UniProtKB/TrEMBL annotation:
Chain ranges of the tRNA/rRNA methyltransferase SpoU type domain: 18-172
One annotated GO molecular function: RNA binding
Organism whose genome encodes this protein: Candidatus Bodocaedibacter vickermanii
Family matches, as Pfam families: SpoU_methylase (PF00588)
Claim: Ribonucleoprotein is one of the keywords in the record: no
Sequence similarity: Belongs to the class IV-like SAM-binding methyltransferase superfamily. RNA methyltransferase TrmH family.
Domain of life: Bacteria
This protein's UniProt keywords: Methyltransferase, S-adenosyl-L-methionine, Transferase
UniProt-recorded name of the protein: Putative tRNA/rRNA methyltransferase
């Protein structure tokens, strides 16, 4: 459908990032780039694109042709070896899925989800919407990292969309609300980026492994997913994640170390009490 105004200013520059996890076809990425540019979205991130894994070039000719002028999005897109690295700087992550998953996550339709995205971006936080590969979508492991799941209401008997169609629908929902964005300049505590959360997860899971909490191999993966899901839903801020790091570090100290620190802090407390008492007597 024609209608491009080459002289128009692009006023939508603060939209969510789009993350495509293990896309199989360059054409779908090209059409997704076109859909993004239609809707004023520019930050495209790919996780392990399958044609690149097969040795073909990232900027595939079929992707460029399918983008139909969306080259700027393709040329600026970033490629990552893992989803964890792709979302390291993201503070609010939305997963798209037409299927039910055995994870307790808030599930929203577009009318519910996009006001949340709007608020997140108004607060100066980084937001991303992620899509799974064409054949199987996102796994539970992927969705564990998300704050919520976006479901687009379609025919329940046939709700499967082409990847680029799904990106276009998300982009369109963004355009409906983006003109109302008012970026705030209020200093506030920000939600922790995924990089900080993942660092905490790695520390916690390592110590749980050592302690024997994850000793049942058959349940280990599900237990880790549940633990990650619990903390992800909490929307922790950076300071809260640092506090959790400190708690885990303290609890896993050797008993002799804990006894030393307990005595040290007890002595400090007693010293302050005596100093305060003497000060009161002198006055």
């Amino acid at each position: 459908m024609a209608g491009t105004n080459r002289n128009a200013n692009n006023i939508r520059t603060h939209g969510p990032s789009i993350i495509l996890v293990e896309p199989a076809l360059p054409e779908n990425v090209g059409m997704s780039a076109r859909a993004m540019l239609n809707c004023g979205l520019h930050d495209l991130r790919l996780v392990k694109p399958k044609w690149v894994e097969s040795g073909e070039p990232l900027l595939h000719g079929r992707a460029i042709a399918a983008s139909a002028g969306g080259d700027s999005v393709l040329e600026a897109m970033q490629v990552f070896d893992s989803l964890e690295s792709a979302v390291a700087d993201i503070q609010h992550l939305v997963a798209t899925s037409p299927r039910k998953h055995e994870l307790y996550k808030p599930v929203y339709d577009p009318d519910q989800q996009f006001p949340i995205i709007k608020t997140v971006i108004e607060n100066g936080e980084k937001c991303a919407v992620m899509f799974g590969c064409e054949k199987s979508g996102l796994t539970n492991q992927h969705i564990t990292l998300a704050n919520s799941i976006l479901e687009i209401p379609l025919n329940p008997a046939y709700s499967s969309l082409n990847l680029a169609q799904a990106v276009l629908l998300v982009g369109y929902e963004w355009t409906k609300i983006s003109d109302k964005i008012k970026l705030r300049r209020v200093k506030k505590l920000e939600p922790a980026p995924r990089e900080e959360l993942l660092s905490f997860f790695n520390q916690l899971e390592k110590e749980l492994e050592i302690s024997g909490f994850l000793r049942i191999d058959e349940k280990k993966e599900v237990m880790i997913q549940n633990i990650r899901n619990m903390f992800t839903k909490a929307g922790l801020e950076s300071q809260e994640v640092r506090t959790l790091h400190g708690i885990v570090t303290y609890l896993t100290k050797h008993p002799d170390e804990k006894a030393f620190y307990k005595e040290f802090y007890t002595n400090q407390k007693e010293s302050r009490r005596l100093k305060k008492s003497k000060s009161g007597e002198q006055s």
